[in-house]
Amino acid sequence: MITIRIRRLALSVAVLLVGLGLASFLGAAPIQDSATYDLVISGGRVMDPESGLDAVRNVGISDGKIRAISAGPLQARQTIEAKGLVVAPGFIDLHEHGQEPRNYQFQAHDGVTTSLELEAGTNDVTGWYAAREGKSLINFGVSIGHIPVRAQVVAHAQGALGSSATRTSDIEAALHREATPDELDQMKALIETGFKQGALAEGMGINYTPGATRWEIVEMFRLAAKYNAPVHVHLRYAGLVEPETGLNAIEEVIAAAASTGAPLHVVHITSMGLKNTPQLIAMVEGARRRGLDVTTECYPYTAASTGLQTAIFDPGWQKRMGIDYKDVQWTATGERLTTETFDKYRKQGGIVVIHMIPEDAARNAVANPIVMIGSDGMPITGPKVHPRGQGTFSRVLGHYVREEKALDLMTALRKMTLMPAQRLEKRAPVFKDKGRIRVGADADITVFDPGRVIDKATYEEPLRYSEGIQFVLVNGVPVVKDGQLVDGVFPGRAARAPVVQ
Ligand SMILES: [Zn+2]
What we know:
It is built from 17 helices and 22 strands. The chain is an alpha/beta fold. Strands 1, 2, 3, 4, 5, 19, 20, 21 and 22 form a 9-stranded mixed sheet that branches. An 8-stranded parallel sheet has the order 6-7-8-9-10-13-14-18, with helices on both faces. The longest helix is centred in the N-terminal third of the chain and has 18 residues, at 2-19. The radius of gyration is 23 Å and the shape is globular. The site of zinc ion has 5 residues, from loops.
């Protein structure tokens, strides 16, 4: 009896495995796969950070989902030959301010299948998603943003303020002013509305809203905790001189996360920590070890980029950031600033590139397995915009993995696929099927040549596509084929938390 029972159990486990598609995943399925798939990616080196699979496999795709992962041949109406190429989950960019069709083209060429604006966010979540539905090359998503909500309430500025390029001096004055109790209530109501409309996260840029008190920040974290949403924060300070340091500023948000229970995600930790970046990462590691849900990200560059009119450039910026006029570059022309041009352009408004992050800090963060990769890509407002929106992911894979050997390929892929998906999946279950090469997952897939992948966008020539990203699928539809963009396809879908009526 006992033997039979065990056999039955073994059989039912085997049936279960086949049912889940795990047998074919293990490459040991004796069953002939007679299905005909919409598309097969044939003979590539499949790398999946969740299961650890790193082997040559065929991937069968139908109806926008991965249906089979097999060592045996698969039938399909369309085949992508991937011999010698890596087949990875599509990259998820947690931090991209450029959310226009042109940005999506650059991002697709860089392997990104899901592009998210979570730091600045929007004050109109429903309108933001509606504007992109059915018109997008890649998947898209947004946070409810404390900056635009605060601008709406305190400065009565209407419309979404996704970009720091468009701030007027009126808005800047309002962002420097403490909110009244009534204004704080209005902000809280708008943040809650954003969550009910399916915002993926809460975006905060405390450095841009110096009028926000510590208590205002805590109140914002309380709301995020209520909706189980991560708070994606640009810290209050990015400075090197106490008390306006990145270390002081990270203490504020770790304390807010600990006392409210909200998950915390510190954005671009290198431009916050500067040469002290390892200290900030140590704070994140320590918080995690003590059970707090704290994560962080970086981009693989030694320059930051932001609006020249913002609070970042309030008097004293040279001392705070340890830089001078010559380190600030005007994106409209590429010129380095002087006292005269700084004053002129600060009145005028526009985006600058700020050369202020030591290479050691950038490398330290890129190589650290707990630090995710996020581009912080900018709207394309001039010919000399920051290259990060166009080249971040290929730069990590080509420069830091292949050329510098700063980290291994699977770790790098984990930092740009699985970890961002896990960051968001408690709030937005759609992410449980992203960031993985797994049967049943969304067919968001990036196929690249590990020997050739590289960023081509530079500070001098930022509007250049990355190379070596050969095929990119979004919900099973190729958007890049043989290294070329596919015209006239819009398979991108909303990556959104559930909408509450
Ligand atoms: Zn930022």
